[in-house]
Each structure stands twice: as C-alpha cells, then as structure tokens.
Amino acid sequence: MFERHYCGRFPAKQLYSTFDYATQDEDGYFFILGRSDDVINVSGHRLGTREIEETVSSHPAVAEVATVGASDELKGQSVHCFIVLKRHADYDGLPDREAALKREIQSLVERSLGTFARPSAIYLVRALPKTRSGKILRRAILAAAEGRATGDLSTLEDPVALDAIKELLEVTRKPS
Predict the structure, then answer these.
(1) In the predicted model, is pLDDT for residue 98 greater than 90?
(2) What is the C-alpha separation between 95 and 80, in angstroms, rounded?
(3) What's the pLDDT at 166?
C-alpha cells in the first residue's frame, strides 16, 4: 500500500510523491506552496485551506476550523468549513442565531479573501476528527462530505467526532 500510494503516482518512473504543491519559475527554481491536498480549486481559483481557516478562526466565536474542498459539479470544488465554537451552547437549538453566525463567517471570508473563497457550506460541530498526534484528519472529513468511504482510520484518536460529522451531513443531505 505504501509503495503504491507514494511511489506509484508516476508509472515507469522512480519518483516519490510528497503530495506538496509547487511551482517552477523560468530559471528552474521550485517554490513549495503547501500540501496538494490542502489546496482547493474553486472555479479556477486556487485557494489554500490555511488562509481560509485563519480567516474563519479570526471570528470571536470560533475555536477551531477544518476546511475541505468538496467536489462541485459547477465549480470543480466548493469550500466546506467544519467549525468548533468556543461556546457551542450559545448557538445550540437556536437556528436563527446559528444562521446569523454562518452569514457573519461567510461575509468575513468574502471581505478578507474574495467572494470566490466564501464557504458554500458551514457545519457547526462539537469536535474535529484528529490523529493521536493532534493533526486534523481532513481526508476523512472530505470523504464524509463527498459521501465516500473514509478509508483507513487506524490513527484516529476519537471516532465519535467523525461519526458526528457523518450524521450531521446525512441530516443536511435529506430533502426537507
């Protein structure tokens, strides 16, 4: 599995893929821009998840955020934010207040990064799925957002966090 995943991306070549995104200038110099799985392509605009997350995190109600680029038929990908609030109880069971918060966050992203970076979907969650070392498991969140199998979760610290996200997504996908 390791060999196929990291070394099999370029058939007939002995290359190891680090999954980093880079550009090369006219002089041949490479510039590492970040992880390729941390770049979202929305209607031709390449967005870093880090910039979106930093912007969303600047809202006083936000404790933590994970951003993924879910497949979108029209745009290629769309921005989906999974947000842990500092005081979840202030919004729990208050749909008007929750909707207002989501609009504030979308507006904040628009002002800071542009309308193309505005999240298409914002989910308020109690916890984000993380590895035992504390890294957010974005690939599992993305798979859940796209309705795909999440793959190997052997490093997942708390499966309840991912299960809660899956349940929330199922509820939001159901027609009203």
Answers:
(1) yes
(2) 19
(3) 96
Contact 106, 118 (CB under 8 A): yes
Name the helix (H) or strand (E) containing 32.
strand 30-35
Backbone angle region of 155, left / alpha / beta, with phi > 0 → left and psi within -120 to 50 → alpha? alpha
- Specify whether the CB–CB gap between 49 and 86 falls below 8 A: no
CA-closest candidate to residue 68, choices 55, 52, 84, 57:
52
Instruction: Give per-residue pLDDT as tens, 45-60.
Output: 888 888 899 999 999 9
pTM: 0.78
Give the domain ranges of the chain. Answer: 37-173
* CATH code of the domain made up of 37-173: 3.30.300.30
Residues comprising the chain, all counted: 176
Contacts of 147 (CB under 8 A, 6+ apart): 169, 173
CB 141 within 8 A of CB 130: no
pLDDT at 28: 86
Catalytic hit among 37, 72, 152, 163:
37
Q: In which band, very low, low, confident or very high, does the pLDDT at 172 lie, cut at 50, 70 and 90?
A: confident
Scan for tokens 């507006």, then name that residue: 107
Known catalytic residue at 37: yes
The Cβ of residue 125 has, within 10 Å, a number of other Cβ atoms equal to 20
